[in-house]
Specification:
Blueprint: H1 2-17, H2 32-48, H3 51-58, H4 62-69, H5 73-81, H6 88-103, H7 110-113, H8 117-183
Amino acid sequence: MEIEGQKEIQRTNSSSAFGDGGFDEGVRSKTSTRIFYEAQVSVIKKQLGDLEKSRTDLGLSQRKICQLLMVDPSAWTRWNRDHEEAPPHIWRALQWYMTLQEKIPGLTPQYFIGKDPQILHEKTLLKIAEEKKLRESLEDDLQALKARFQTQQEKLLKNLRFHRTLSYFLITLTFVLAALLYWR
C-alpha cells in the first residue's frame, strides 16, 4: 500500500514537471545495444520467418518448443497471438537450433529436451563412433583400390611400351624386307 502511494506521488511529480500531458511512461528509451539487438532480430526473422514457421520447420509441437527454449507456453502464445515481440535471445536460440539441424541432421531437438540427456548424448557418441569406423573402413578400401589401380596402370604402361617397341621393330623389318625384295 505504501509503495503504491509512493509510485503515485512520483507519477504526479513527474507529470507536473513536464507540463499537462507529461510524458508517456510506457515508452522506454532505446540504448544502442537494444537497437543493435533489434536489428539482429530483424535479420534472423528474415532468415527463419515467424515463430510458428520456425516451430514447424523444427517439427515440434508448441509444448516441445517451449521446453526446448525454456519458456512458459503462455509466453509463446502471447508472442504469436498478440503480435508481441519475442525477446532477442529466443530468436537467437531458434537460429542456433535451425543451424544445428542443418549441420548435424541426426541431432534432433529431443537431444536437448529428452528426459535423460546423458543417454541421448551417449547414443549420439556411439553413432558418431560407428560412422567414424565406417568411414575409416571405406578409406582403407579406397586406398586398396587406388593401389590396385596403380598396379594395373603400371602393367598396362609396360605392355604398351612392349607393343610399341614390337610395332616399330615389325615396321622396320617390313621396310627392310620390302627394300630387299625391291632390290633383287
